[in-house]
Design goal:
The chain has nine helices and 14 strands. Strands 1-4-7-10-13 form a five-stranded parallel β-sheet. The chain folds into two domains: 27-176, serine acetyltransferase, domain 1; 197-285, UDP N-Acetylglucosamine Acyltransferase, domain 1. By secondary structure, it is α/β, with parallel strands linked by helices. The chain is globular, with a radius of gyration of 25 Å.
């Protein structure tokens, strides 16, 4: 090891001793981000067979292909679930049988998830005039990918599996720009048009037939703290959105006590921290614009005026 490398290593080792809280040394492995990403890809293939594969799948091959893929997911997920459970287990021991049952229970719920995802595809098709087919939505709409992974991750979230649910939704977030916490409760026929910049918080409750546009935030108004100044976890912090609500781009809705009533429309760039009654329209006042004739300015700049 040359002198320069030796000095860098020495400095880093000193940093590892000095700076705590961001090291994980002499501990069991945590779930692997690349492995969870690969599992997410396979789960999407199970949810939408034939859409994400490079080769066509014939009906006579479907059973065998599905069995291979399910077995692959079970093998990969069991390892990551064991690592995840070991993270919170006293003594670090987790029976492999427990992880196997949790993974199989998760996979047994995929048919139900697929039924709800079909309604999300319908909502996208009905809600976007540019959508030409269900196929286009499944192949090209980032919202469907983000929603599908969130609906799956929520199963693990409800089962109390640490780390993995959030890793799954953050994998989808990194790909789509849509950040939906695995704890959010979302009804059927959910559509996010365009999607970039949407944030849906952990304790959000979203009804059926809800449509969001890009840049919408369903967030927390504040973070309650205990007597020692530490954030209190597990309290309702994010809003409820009832059935048939549309929220336009850039709207921000905050607070665990805030409810957007059914069939309401929230206009672009609205900022809301109180409940809205059903059948309401919330819109900012019209802005006055100063409109000038650019052609006159151009003639003056070119020296045509006053010649």
């Amino acid at each position: 090891m040359d002198r320069e490398v030796s000095q860098i290593v020495s400095d880093l080792l000193g940093s590892y001793q000095e700076v705590g809280g961001i090291n994980r040394i002499d501990c069991s492995n945590l779930p692997s981000k690349p492995a969870i990403g690969a599992v997410c890809e396979d789960l999407l293939r199970l949810a939408f067979p034939g859409f994400l594969d490079t080769e066509a799948i014939a009906s006579e091959e479907l059973e065998n292909e599905t069995a291979i893929r399910v077995s692959k997911v079970i093998t990969a997920l069991e390892k990551e679930v064991v690592r995840s459970l070991r993270f919170v287990a006293e003594g670090g021991s987790v029976p492999a049988e427990r992880a196997h049952e949790m993974v199989c229970s998760f996979l047994r719920q995929l048919p139900g998830i697929r039924r709800v995802l079909r309604t999300d595809v319908e909502a996208a098709y009905d809600g976007d005039p540019a959508a030409k087919s269900f196929d286009e939505i499944i192949l090209a709409y980032p919202c469907l990918e983000a929603i599908a992974i969130q609906r799956m991750a929520r199963i693990f979230y409800q089962d109390g599996v640490p780390l993995i649910p959030r890793m799954m939704t953050e994998w989808a977030h990194s790909k789509t720009g849509i950040d939906i916490h695995p704890g959010a409760m979302i009804g059927s026929h959910f559509f996010i048009d365009h999607g970039t910049g949407v944030v849906v918080g952990e304790t959000c409750e979203i009804g059926h037939h809800v449509k969001l546009y890009h840049g919408v935030t369903l967030g927390a108004r504040s973070f309650p703290k205990d007597g020692e100044g530490n954030p209190i976890k597990g309290v309702k912090r994010h809003p409820n959105v009832e059935d048939w609500v549309t929220i336009y781009p850039g709207a921000t809705i905050l607070g665990g006590e805030t409810t957007i009533g059914a069939r309401s429309t929230i206009g672009a760039s609205a900022f809301i921290m109180r409940s809205i009654e059903p059948d309401s329209l919330v819109a900012l006042p019209e802005v006055t614009h100063d409109i000038k004739d650019k052609s006159a300015h151009r003639r003056f700049a070119d020296g045509e005026e006053g010649n």
